[in-house]
Amino acid sequence: MTFRHAADPVAVTADNWIHTSVLVLNASYEALDEIAADRAVVLIIGGAAEAIADRESYFAIRSTRVEVPLPQTIRLRRYVYIEHVPHGGDQSRATLAGVLRRDRHRCGYCAGWARTVDHIRPRSRGGPNTWDNLVACCVACNTAKADHTPEEVGMRLLWQPKAPTHRAKQQRKIWRQLAAGHA
Ligand SMILES: [Zn+2]
Questions:
Q1: Which of 30, 141, 147, 177 gets the highest tally of CB atoms within 10 A of its CB?
Q2: What's the gap in Å between 63 CA and the centre of ligand 1?
Q3: CA distance linking residue 75 with residue 133, whole number of Å
């Protein structure tokens, strides 16, 4: 999804408001992230956040019960603790669930729906359980590849798997904490 900033000359309309981005501040007013406008509105309606700045031109989002002006900046009512991660990638151990989530269940070889994870360099050849050696894989590709490297069976990776970024991990952490606090 591409986000549009409020400063953009494009007017907010019923068709594009969902693609605008909203700045999220922690309860301590520290900037955390930018999120899609529809998520921001959900946080406001659910009481997890308050709008502290609306768009310059008033634009109302209507749900069945309430009307909320499209915000530009929101502040979480509850402090969310985000640990400092020193650099770049996630150094944690790769898990099956983690790899599927990182690759959004898309097969690394055919982009089809993936339920399994492939060791790019096979385990039988010493391939490690690391983020860059694991990729989401559909059953058909996994069966075709078996105990081979992609080159040996003429398969090509559609992207180079890497550890999830700090940003992706941070976003998930924010949503998990908010979900826990407002269940
Ligand atoms: Zn596949």
A1: 141
A2: 40
A3: 39
Task: Give me ligand 1 centre to Cα 91, in Å.
Answer: 27
Contact 65, 115 (CB under 8 A): no
Helices (H), the chain: 37-45, 96-102, 139-145, 166-181
What distance in Å separates the CA atoms of residue 128 and residue 133, rounded to the nearest whole number? 6
Q: Which of 28, 39, 20 is nearest to 76 (CA)?
A: 28
pLDDT for 180? 67
Tokens matching residue 135:
């990729």
Count CB atoms within 10 A of the CB of residue 112. 14
Q: For position 2, what pLDDT does the model report?
A: 46
**Ion ligand 1: protein residues whose beta carbon lies under 5 Å:** 107, 109-110, 112, 138, 141
Side chain identity, residue 174:
I
- The answer for residues whose C-beta is within 8 angstroms of residue 107's C-beta and 6 or more apart is 113, 114, 136, 137, 138, 141
Mean pLDDT, consecutive 10-residue stretches, the chain (183 aa), reads: 47 78 87 84 90 82 82 90 58 83 90 94 92 95 96 94 76 72 51
